[in-house]
Task: structure prediction
Amino acid sequence: MTRSTILRSLLAIAVAGAAGTALRAADAMRIVPLVDHETLIVSVELPDAYTDDVKEAVSSGLRTSFTYDVDLRMKATVWFDRTVASEVVTTSDQYDNLTMRHSLSRTIDGHVDETLVTEDAGIAKRWLTSLTRVPLCKTSRLDQSRDYYVRISARARPHGGSILGWANPITGAAKFTFVP
Result:
């Protein structure tokens, strides 16, 4: 075997491994787009995202946040897919070791949407790893019988966690056809 053949084989193995990791990451995210009255809303669950590292960061009192980049895109046949709407949703947990309370907040595009204080760790876990009924756009902006998809990229950030500050993102998508 020549050196170039070995390098190509190693590259193929690395690409296949990366593709497998991406598929597993996409399977770990559940995305549900729904039409409620005249608004497209999105719900997301990341059941495996509350890892031991995240749990440790929360219990240590570090402010821990999950950032969700939510994009509604329209499938295009000839050109690039068009972005119809985008939202950046951040959920955060600031745990107080003395009072044993979680101070939870959710912001949408930098504006505080909701806050909650709880002693229940289960509620804090669900708060960080799921979004419920986030309004994405008015249905009047959508074309009838067109193919769309909601693409979400989620990442966790415990302050001081990594050199770059962001953990590995998880990305997923849900396709649908808009029929009014």
In short: The beta strands are 30-36, 39-45, 64-74, 82-96, 101-108, 111-118, 130-138, 147-158, 170-177. The chain has three helices and nine strands.
